[in-house]
Every structure is written in C-alpha cells, then in structure tokens.
C-alpha cells in the first residue's frame, strides 16, 4: 500500500494543531472532509493515529511515529517537484548551502573543473533551517555544523575547528591569548537553543536571548548582554572592534559535515561530495586567521 501524500499532509496539519477545526481552516477544506481523509489514512495504515475524546485530540504512539517520519517524506517529495521543474526549464544548477564562516569556493572550483556546464549557486543556512533546507530541496548539498537533526540526511564528516569565546570589548578577559571554560563559569550565555546544545560541560545561565545567526549574536555580546561562542572561521569573516574573540582550548571543537537528503540520488551531488572531501583541509584553513595574516603580510612586503 502506497502512502497518499495529500492525506499525509492533512495528518501533519492536524498533528501540529491538535484541532480538526483549525487544521481544516489552514488547509482550506471543510472539517467533515478532513475527518474523512484522516479516517481513510488510519484505515490504510491499519492503526489509530489520534485519540479523540471530551478532553480534545492527542496523538497515539503510532501517530507520534508517523509525525516523526512524515516531515522528511513530504520534504523529499517537495524536493522532487523542484528538481523536475528545474530540469524542464533546462537548468543545470547545483545549490550548495553553507553556514556562516564556511567558504564554498575551494570545493566549487574543483567541481566546476569537472562540470563546466553546471552553475554552482550558494545559499546561507542557519542552525534552525539547515536540515529543512536540505530536505525540502532548497539546497542540494550543504556544509552544516553539528548538532543537526540527522533524520532523513546523509552526513559525511569534513573537519573540525576550534571554538572561540565572544566577549564584549571591555570584558575582564578580552584580549587574553587564551582562556579556560572555568574562567567563564557563571557568565550569561547568548545562544540559539536550550542548555543541552551549549558547548560547555557545565551549562551557562541563559541570557534570555535567542539568536539565529552570528550577526545577532555579536550585537547582543557587544551590548554587554552576555557572552557567546563561535567557530574560528566565523571570527575571520566577522571582525569588529566592539567584541573580542578569545580561544578556549579545553572546549571540544566544532564539527563541520557535508550533508544531503538521504533519499536523493544525484551524480552531481556525489561529485561535489568528493570535491568537498578533497578540499576539506583547504576549506578548514580558510578559517585560520593566522593564515590570512601571513598572506596579507606577504602582499604588503611585495607591494
């Protein structure tokens, strides 16, 4: 029995709202029609997906499992439609996603030498959309930073990079050659998610500010609202006088992976994976401030 993707989309909407009336409004269909479609899906699967009683609507264990699996499946179907549409218009394009500070150009140059007829486009991703963008086809492959929800993804490790503390310029530890995790104990943290995602062994107090990208993070730190952490490559591309970046050697390094949707088969994406692996060391060194400083000094000497 093949899953009906329309019924699956209806199910996800009900599961997200836990209210048939609101789900019907979102889907622009009548509530009785929605109820019939959900019952039909339950019949197709041979399980109950929802418990409906006087207290409202809740998911069964089977419903929770289907909700976990439905996202990648629907995203994969959406990605297929995007790629088919692009092919119909004669487009030869590979969209590469990247996180702040990670340069795509080393791998792109190697890939384009093999495929001069393919345009390599780039799209920046943030921590909260790196998995959805890969799954829904907005990007074909992506340089991602862990942690990431690995459901429905194929992941290949590329390299690691040191983590740096981000401090206000007037902070007591600003300008140090290096500091330890203990030196920062008790400092409020400007971060993008909950305590379980913090890179330190002991969680920091939450500054109460949720940020998506590095720019927001730096704005809050510069204003003295807390400290934060970034990968070394981000310090190279986001230099500013009102914050100080200090190495914290006892923190585990940031992990950089290349990812794509596991359901996708693409010789072009496979070739980009190979190019990214072959150039991983060069890509990692693009985040090395000392390398850039040496290069600038060499240019100055020959200028």
From TrEMBL:
Which Gene3D superfamilies does the annotation name?
A: Periplasmic binding protein-like II (3.40.190.10), Winged helix-like DNA-binding domain superfamily/Winged helix DNA-binding domain (1.10.10.10)
The source's domain of life comes to: Bacteria
Residues that span the membrane, as ranges: none
Q: Which intervals hold domain HTH lysR-type?
A: 3-60
Q: Kindly give the PROSITE patterns that the UniProt entry links to this protein.
A: HTH_LYSR (PS50931)
Keyword entries, A-Z = DNA-binding, Transcription, Transcription regulation
Question: Matching PANTHER family, A to Z?
Answer: HCA OPERON TRANSCRIPTIONAL ACTIVATOR HCAR, TRANSCRIPTIONAL DUAL REGULATOR HCAR-RELATED
Family of the protein in this entry: Belongs to the LysR transcriptional regulatory family.
What this protein is called in its record is: Transcriptional regulator, LysR family
Give the species: Krasilnikoviella flava
């Amino acid at each position: 029995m093949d899953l009906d993707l329309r019924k699956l989309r209806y199910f996800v909407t009900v599961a997200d709202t836990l209210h048939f009336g609101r789900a019907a409004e979102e889907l622009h269909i009548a509530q009785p029609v929605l109820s019939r479609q959900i019952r039909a899906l339950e019949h197709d699967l041979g399980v109950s997906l929802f418990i409906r009683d006087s207290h409202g609507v809740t998911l069964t264990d089977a419903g929770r499992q289907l909700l976990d699996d439905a996202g990648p499946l629907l995203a994969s179907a959406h990605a297929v439609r995007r790629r088919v549409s692009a092919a119909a218009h004669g487009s030869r394009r590979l969209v590469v996603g990247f996180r702040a500070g990670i340069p795509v150009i080393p791998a792109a140059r190697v890939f384009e030498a093999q495929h001069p007829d393919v345009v390599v486009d780039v799209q920046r991703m943030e921590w909260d959309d790196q998995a959805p963008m890969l799954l829904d086809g907005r990007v074909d492959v992506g340089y991602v930073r862990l942690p990431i929800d690995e459901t429905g993804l194929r992941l290949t490790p590329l390299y690691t990079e040191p983590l740096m503390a981000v401090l206000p310029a007037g902070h007591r530890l600003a300008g140090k050659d290096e500091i330890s995790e203990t030196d920062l104990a008790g400092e409020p943290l400007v971060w993008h998610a909950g305590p379980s995602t913090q890179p330190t062994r002991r969680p920091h107090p939450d500054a109460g500010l949720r940020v998506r990208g590095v720019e927001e993070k730096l704005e809050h730190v510069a204003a003295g609202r807390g400290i934060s952490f970034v990968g070394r490559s981000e310090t190279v591309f986001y230099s500013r006088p009102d914050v100080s970046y200090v190495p914290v050697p006892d923190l585990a390094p940031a992990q950089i992976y290349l990812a794509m949707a596991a359901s996708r088969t693409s010789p072009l994406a496979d070739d980009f994976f190979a190019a990214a692996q072959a150039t991983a060391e060069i890509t990692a060194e693009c985040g090395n401030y000392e390398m850039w400083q040496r290069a600038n000094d060499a240019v100055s000497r020959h200028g």
